[in-house]
Amino acid sequence: MKKIYIPLFMGVFLFLVGCASYQQKKEIRQDKDWTIIWEEHFDAPGVLDATKWNIVERNNADWGNYMSNNPECMKIKDGKLYLRGIVNPDRAKDTAQYLTGGVSTKGKFAFQYGKIEIHAKLESATGAWPAMWMLADQPKYGKYPRNGEIDLMEHLNYEDQVYQTIHSYYTLELKKEFPQRYTTVPVNTENFNTYGMEWYADRLVFTVNGKETLTYPKVEGVDPSQWPFDQPFYLLIDMQLGGSWVGKVDPDDLPVQMIVDWVRVYQ
User: Is the N or the C terminus of the chain less surrounded, counting Cβ atoms within 10 Å?
Assistant: First the structure.
């Protein structure tokens, strides 16, 4: 009898101890005292702080076809940043059919490890693709996608969910699906929501409204391109339109906008 029940008892005991230890570690991590190292509340009416932000320029990427510095694509009002996607009002000045607004901290602020949160509201339209994401500040490992990409939030069309995703050479070129690299999270886009991530030396923990949604760990014994997240990254927030993923734009749905209330970075 003892040979049967003692091991069973010990197994249950160790399991409970392990659960308690895990819960304690989880609580300790959640209760970590974060300190704000960088923040933006868009308090200066009509003025984008040039010491913190750049206007995202048009580029050849799928998401960058309509990026513009047209003032109609970006407004600051009542402590909020409005990034807009519009029908181009004057194609004599710019031949693009649509214009979109975006900002980045490239060359002005980057960080490595910590926590980031962005409080924002997403409007919907056919072809709308608002995004909050991060890229490496320097090409430590070479050209894209070797330095990785962290997508804090992407929203498509009229969907009632957002996407949170990791991209890298490991996922895009080697096409590795382990560990899990993306998730979808239900959101009410009628409300402001907080999109975030906690960044540690061995994992990325995505959040929506303070709740963990996806953990992407550093994995030992695989191709080193799996973890390029050991270097500073900068932030991009942009109201994109059109592209191979989101599909065609319906001009009758425009203008559309992403309204950003605040951005905070902690360590």
Answer: N
Query: What residues make up the domain containing 72?
Result: 34-266
Catalytic residue among 72, 149, 173, 190: 149
**pTM, full prediction:** 0.88
Q: Which letter does DSSP use for residue 67 in this model?
A: B
Active-site residue flag, 149 = yes
pLDDT over 80 at 1, yes or no: no
Q: Does one domain contain both 63 and 186?
A: yes
Please give the span between the terminal C-alpha atoms of the chain, in angstroms, as a whole number. 54
Q: Is 154 noted as a catalytic residue in this protein?
A: yes
| Per annotation, catalytic residue among 40, 117, 123, 154 | 154
Report the CATH number at residue 55.
2.60.120.200
Co-location of 184 and 255 in the same domain = yes
Q: Please check whether residues 52 and 170 belong to one and the same domain.
A: yes
Predicted pLDDT at 2 = 36
| 33-34-36-37 Cα dihedral, nearest 10 degrees | 120
